């Protein structure tokens, strides 16, 4: 069993990944600095299950300033999820995005190089492709938002540390992840909240924008496969998306069906940086990692709505 570091371990996906590794018998070292992009209470709640394991330890440390070498030391894998995500705030808070996503990654890579970390799994995003993300991994990289630009820089840093110092990297580009614990700034979370509270939902664009809808368990499975099939994954970049591409309008209808409520739409023009179409080409991950996303969108959204209702009841 391995000792694994997860950065961003208090976040939406990092906390689920930590649980999966703990469940599989690994030792998990979590790192997060609780950036107040959304509430610390939510992030602490994300960690409740992890904290019940003796094999979980946690460092409240910021990648930009902390002593990372001592944390990375003796870890057989680093899963680097910590980042400032979401694109809208990246226009107004560029310094925060660039420092967390670029400098934070560079400091972690430095530590991984110095400590000879055997596998550095870097989590990237479909946003590195730009307005459309529908091709294979070698499609042009033309990010369309400051967020995408910082995440592409982080990828390039990983490649530079690999080429110059042999840091053993794998890059996973996630596509629109959803499910329980989804970040409060993400569209499905906002939409479900609006529907359950009978409030209007502000839709940017005509609703025909498509997404690759990756249920969190599928993206966690892909990440574990990249870890377990290290020899095949080393040096590679993989798209990790769900199997079902739907437009926002189609998701609205599914959520109306699940909640039994009509959505009250407030339609506005698309925002700067918004992606138009994402449709993950996951052939490479299927072929090399054996990745096979299993969750249908309706099934995953039922789970997310259930979780949302439980959270609302607990907080009321
Ligand atoms: N959620 C998605 O749909 C999605 C899609 C593509 C890629 N990603 C990538 O997946 C990763 C996780 O995303 P998420 O949705 O779980 O986000 P999240 O905000 O829930 O989790 C990220 C965590 O990183 C922490 N963090 C940020 N900067 C830090 C720093 N400097 N030092 C220490 N901790 C720091 C935050 O406090 C947060 O808890 C990110 O790298 C994101 O770019 C997410």
Q: Figure out the total of helices.
A: 13
Output the helix-strand order: EHEHHEHEHHEEHEEHEEEHHEEHEEHH
Global structural class: alpha/beta
Question: What is the total number of structural domains?
Answer: 2
Low-confidence stretches: none
CATH architecture type of the largest domain: 3-Layer(aba) Sandwich
What tags apply to this protein structure?
316 residues; alpha/beta; Rossmann fold; 2 domains; two-stranded parallel sheet; binds nicotinamide-adenine-dinucleotide
Account of the protein in words:
- By secondary structure, this protein is α/β, with parallel strands linked by helices.
- The protein folds into 2 domains: 3-175 and 214-240, NAD(P)-binding Rossmann-like Domain (Rossmann fold, 3-Layer(aba) Sandwich), CATH 3.40.50; 178-211 and 243-280 and 294-315, UDP-galactose 4-epimerase, domain 1 (Alpha-Beta Complex).
- The chain is 43% helix and 18% strand.
- It contains 13 helices and 15 strands.
- It has helices at 12-23, 40-46, 48-51, 69-72, 89-92, 94-114, 146-165, 187-196, 216-228, 230-233, 248-259, 283-289, 297-315, and strands at residues 3-7, 27-32, 56-60, 77-80, 120-125, 132-133, 169-174, 177-178, 200-204, 210-211, 214-215, 237-240, 246-247, 264-268, 277-278.
- It has a 7-stranded parallel beta sheet with strand order 3-2-1-4-5-7-12, with helices on both faces.
- Helix 1 links the parallel strand 1 (3-7) and strand 2.
- The termini are far apart.
- Bound molecules: nicotinamide-adenine-dinucleotide.
- The site of nicotinamide-adenine-dinucleotide has 28 residues, from helix 1, helix 6 and strand 5.
């Amino acid at each position: 069993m391995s000792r694994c570091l997860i950065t961003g371990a208090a976040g939406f996906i990092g906390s689920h990944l930590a649980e999966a590794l703990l469940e599989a018998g690994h030792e998990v070292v979590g790192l997060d600095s609780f950036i107040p992009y959304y509430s610390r209470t939510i992030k602490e709640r994300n960690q409740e299950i992890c904290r019940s394991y003796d094999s979980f330890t946690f460092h409240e440390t910021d990648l930009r300033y902390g002593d990372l070498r001592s944390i990375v030391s003796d870890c057989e894998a680093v899963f680097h999820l910590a980042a400032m995500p979401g694109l809208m705030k990246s226009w107004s808070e560029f310094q925060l995005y660039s420092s967390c996503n670029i400098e934070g990654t560079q400091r972690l890579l430095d530590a991984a190089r110095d400590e000879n970390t055997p596998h550095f799994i870097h989590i990237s995003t479909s946003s590195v492709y730009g307005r459309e993300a529908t091709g294979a991994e070698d499609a042009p990289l033309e990010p369309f938002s400051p967020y995408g630009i910082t995440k592409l820089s982080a990828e390039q840093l990983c490649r530079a540390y690999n080429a110059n110092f042999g840091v053993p990297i794998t890059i996973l580009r996630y596509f629109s992840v959803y499910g329980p614990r989804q970040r409060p700034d993400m569209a499905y979370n906002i939409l479900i909240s609006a529907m359950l509270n009978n409030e209007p939902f502000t839709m940017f664009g005509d609703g025909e924008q498509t997404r690759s809808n990756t249920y969190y368990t599928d993206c966690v499975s892909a990440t574990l496969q990249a870890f377990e099939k290290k020899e095949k994954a080393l040096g590679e970049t993989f798209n990790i998306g769900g199997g079902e591409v739907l437009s926002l309008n189609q998701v609205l209808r599914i959520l109306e069906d699940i909640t039994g409520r009509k959505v009250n739409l407030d339609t506005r023009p698309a925002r700067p940086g918004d992606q138009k179409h994402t449709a993950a080409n996951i052939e490479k991950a299927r072929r090399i990692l054996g990745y096979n996303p299993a969750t249908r969108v309706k099934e995953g959204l039922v789970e997310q709505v259930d979780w949302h209702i439980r959270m609302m009841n607990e907080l009321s």
